[in-house]
Amino acid sequence: MEVIPISLPNSAFAFRRIRMHTLFIINARLAETPLKNALNTLIRDHWRLLGARIVGDLKKPHLSYHLPETFPDDNYDLFKWSSEEIDFPIDKALPQLNPSPSQSGKVTVLPLDPRSLAARFSPREWPFQLSDAQDEPFLFVKLTLFTDATVLSLSIPHIVCDALGLASLIRAWLGLVEGKTPPVMIGTREDLLPGRKPFAEYAREEVTAKGRTRLKGRVDGVLVPLGFVPQLVRNFREERTVVLFPTGVVQRLRERIARGFVERGEADPGLTNSDVVTAILAKFSRMDTKKKHMLSLSQTVNLRRRIPELSDPNTTKGYIHNSIIYATSRFRFDHDVSLGDIARRNRESISRTLQPDTIDLYMAISRELTRRAKSQHICEPLEKSFHVTNWSSAWRRLDFTPALEGSAVKEHQDKTPRVLVLGESMESRSPCRFNSVVMCKTEEGYWVSFSAAEPTLKAVRKYLADDPELKEMTRSSSYSSRLISESFAAEIMDARCSTGREYRAQMLDLDGQWEAMLAAYGTEIERGQAKDDDARITPVPTQDATPAAAHIHQT
């Protein structure tokens, strides 16, 4: 048995209990036997790490892979595989995937819950998170074959890979179906991520600076969650949805924002569509909030092709592990802040984060936080946070053509199968309202998981009913870019805790409130999962059923 220590960046607190649940919805039937055989070959003969097990206490920093020198033929699963045949078109089961013509060109909140959808297409015995079944295989796979489409469900520990790594895994797998040798897997026995300067060599002010990835003290560890307790208590229930942002709407907003900066005599910040979507989500998440407050808006940044160690595109095809840091902008949020100001702050924070010295600093802090078994949650005491992860670039040009069933090959001779990707990577008891995932981009736009308390989502729907193209959102103007000062932080603390007695009471009661809320969340989620697991995939009656192939979109 080979024991391979898992690098600290892959053992981060955010990854260690999570399994990524991803659905690939393809508008063609895939061939099950070639796919299953190719996955077996990939693990047994090429990327052997995928057949290992994760060993160690998930609450402690040091974990390891245990990899057999040779895989036994019996009593050792390289992966878990299941399949199901459905005798009707996918459109009958998932009409929610088909926005109506009246919604074309408009931002739309779809009645889809990624978590429930993942449960619907996963066997009941699948573990939701790593801690549910640590000694199980990494990969759980299910093929659901409709008469005209396939849903490929995948579950894998986040410790093993990120979204771009999962995309590399799928490409290597499909390559084997086609008869191509996969690239050599790298980064398993060595930590390829930057770290030229040890944590101990950084000055204290560098590793504790506010508004970014940093080392926090014990008091911070108590005060940060305290800032979230009131809204969780007031509005306990939250709704999980998918928001579809048409590409045309996002591009027009980006162009309008850029013109606004130029007209005010400011430099064009070089915004991307991702910056605009992130800014919209930040506005949506606070749609019913009237009070001004400090907000840390952070975004996941992938280091592939951005650092020398992972700059070779051919080499990175064999790198599946996490290569993630976080960019953060911290500012005072109110309803006067414009979409352009938020998008610009997001772009500036990403540009700063990708400076080589900053990458080294953040990686040093990240490793130290993992050694201390601390969270990398970026938020200051008694403030708010919102986080966005963007998976869309991972699935670009993902082609399932090699795995098509014989009858589907002729139909797709001149065009690649269309793919829609949905999914999540969250702990089962975690509230979802403080983060969002841009799951994929299709011909129709960006598919984004968005969760919110019921009053917030009601406000979002009301706003979209009046302004479905978000034209008014770019017209807010008066925004102060002043970062929070120590005196302002003190004002917030004074307002929240007017007396020392009240403050101490809040501190003493916090742990009990937090545990009770998480337990309640877990109970509600377990009920929902049981309901989803017991429900069969049945057709939804519709008056005008259109072929699913026309409505599952290309990545």
Shape: globular
Q: Helix- and strand-based class? A: alpha+beta
Low-confidence runs: 477-535, 541-555
**CATH architecture group name:** 2-Layer Sandwich
CATH C-level class:
Alpha Beta
Fraction of residues in helix: 25-40%
Radius of gyration: 24 Å
Name of the CATH homologous superfamily: Chloramphenicol acetyltransferase-like domain
**Fold-level CATH name:** Chloramphenicol Acetyltransferase
What is the number of helices?
A: 16
Number of strands: 15
End-to-end separation in angstroms reads 40 Å
Strand order of the largest sheet: 6-9-15-14-12-10-11
Keywords: Transferase
InterPro entries: CAT-like_dom_sf, Plant_Fungal_Acyltransferase
GO molecular function: acyltransferase activity, transferring groups other than amino-acyl groups
Descriptive report:
Keywords: Transferase. InterPro entries: CAT-like_dom_sf, Plant_Fungal_Acyltransferase. GO terms for molecular function: acyltransferase activity, transferring groups other than amino-acyl groups. The chain is an alpha+beta fold. The protein has a single domain, classed as Chloramphenicol acetyltransferase-like domain (Chloramphenicol Acetyltransferase). The strands form three sheets. Strands 6-9-15-14-12-10-11 form a seven-stranded mixed beta sheet. It has a five-stranded mixed beta sheet with strand order 5-7-8-2-13, covered by helices on one side. It has a three-stranded antiparallel beta sheet with strand order 1-4-3, with no helix packed on it. Helix 1 crosses helix 4, helix 3 packs parallel to helix 16 and helix 6 packs across helix 16.
